[in-house]
Design goal:
The chain has helices at residues 21-32, 39-45, 63-76, 104-113, 118-129, 132-140, 154-176; strands at 11-14, 35-38, 49-53, 58-61, 79-83, 96-101, 146-150. Helix 1 (21-32) crosses helix 7 and helix 4 (104-113) packs antiparallel against helix 5 (118-129). It is globular and about 55 Å long. The protein is 49% helix and 19% strand. The chain is an alpha/beta fold and 177 residues long. A hairpin with a 4-residue loop joins strand 3 and strand 4. Strands 2-5-1-6-7 form a five-stranded parallel β-sheet, sandwiched between helices. Strands 3-4 form a two-stranded antiparallel sheet. The chain has a single domain (11-39, 77-176), classed as 3-Layer(aba) Sandwich (Rossmann fold), CATH 3.40.50. It binds adenosine-5'-triphosphate and magnesium ion. Residues 21-22, 82 line the site of magnesium ion.
Length: 177
Amino acid sequence: MANSQRSVPNILVTGTPGVGKSTLCEQLAERTGLEWLEVGQIAKDCECFEEFDEVYQCPVLDEDKLIDEMEDKMGQGGKIVDYHGCDFFPERWFDIVFVLRTNNTVLYDRLGHRGYTGKKLEDNVQCEIFQTILEEAQEAYKMDIVHELPSNTPDDMEENVDKITAWVEEWKLRALS
Ligand SMILES: Nc1ncnc2c1ncn2[C@@H]1O[C@H](COP(=O)(O)OP(=O)(O)OP(=O)(O)O)[C@@H](O)[C@H]1O
Ligand SMILES: [Mg+2]
């Protein structure tokens, strides 16, 4: 049932904050013509928040409201969803899931440049060390649609864009046949 009504696939790009999801998705949208949906931005636009987390100094997502908000668009197919979590989306939304991975030291520097410090910096790097998002994805989706991709260098990113673009083209051809 996963892709029965779609002629263009839906892709999930997930991973720890700072691994390069948005950078990749922007380029991928340009290359494939698929629409990039940045979940954090959609949540802001539709005010999908329910409370404020004092420890992390960020609002807590109202997941049900967000899913209602995205449902029609996802039904159309051809979406690239970009978010640092993945287990609350309906499984049927996605044809493939990519989990970006970054070396701890590289990620530490990236998040430091972004101005993250203290607990926020440490927790995000630990999230990557413990493969939290990878395991979340492997538990929420069928193993064979979950793929890890390295995201340490601009070369990695270029390779990832090439690979995913080729996959999208193949998927579209299969959907036609
Ligand atoms: N493959 C890469 N090689 C080198 N630098 C990268 C790569 N991918 C992303 N970056 C850099 O890392 C930083 C974080 O990237 P980006 O904002 O795309 O991460 P993100 O996963 O979308 O983070 P968030 O979850 O917080 O939205 C940016 O400064 C970006 O230029
Ligand atoms: Mg981002």
